[in-house]
Amino acid sequence: MTVKRRDVLIGASGAVAGIGSLLGSRAAVASELKELAFHHIHTGEDLRLVYAEGGEPIDDALAAIDYLLRDFRTGDVHPIDTNLLDILSALYEQFDRRGRFEVISGYRTPKTNATLRTASSGVAKKSLHLSGRAIDVRLTSASTADLREAAVAMASGGVGYYPKSDFAHIDTGRVRTW
Question: Could you give the CA distance from residue 71 to residue 109 in angstroms, rounded to a whole number?
Fold first, then answer.
């Protein structure tokens, strides 16, 4: 059997392409960073971090987010739904990772939620804030109306818009708008 130079070159170029493709896909996964930036308007705390890399959550980063999004009235900390963080990260990416989310409300204890319900008819009795599945925010690099539109277009959960108070409610419940 005679091996021709042309066959060797074709085989080698195929192998190089295959290795390049494999390395490229690994690099893409490794570089898949989920980043968020927050400013909590009630506590004055700031947080900018990567909370997942290559599809894997970073425990210390999640703990820092849980703390920042705690019920600032009571100090109670609750795990924040990573699906909610993924929605926020996708929105942040849509706005070129500029600015930061200004947090109005993250997790709420039942006591806080009940107190807020007495002051406003817009607070749900079974609010998803109670389970760390909702957040009220605005994004400094976009109008709140644009943030709302982008969240609605994602169709990933509930989106409320409060133009007078200048914030959007985003949650991981069923898809709905108000």
Answer: 6
- Order the strands of the 101-105 sheet from edge to edge: 56-57, 46-53, 33-40, 101-105, 134-139, 167-171, 158-162, 176-177
Q: Tens digits of per-residue pLDDT, 135-164?
A: 999 999 999 999 999 999 999 999 999 999
- Mark 162-178 as b/e (b = at least 16 C-beta within 10 Å): beeeebbbbbbeeeeee
Q: What is the pTM of this model?
A: 0.82
> Are 141 and 158 contacting, i.e. CB atoms less than 8 angstroms apart?
no
Q: Which domain covers residue 19, as residue numbers?
A: 1-31
15-45 pLDDT tens trace: 444 444 444 444 444 458 999 999 999 999 9
Could you tell me if 2 and 75 lie in one domain?
A: no
Q: State how many domains the chain has.
A: 2
Q: Are residues 12 and 38 in the same domain?
A: no
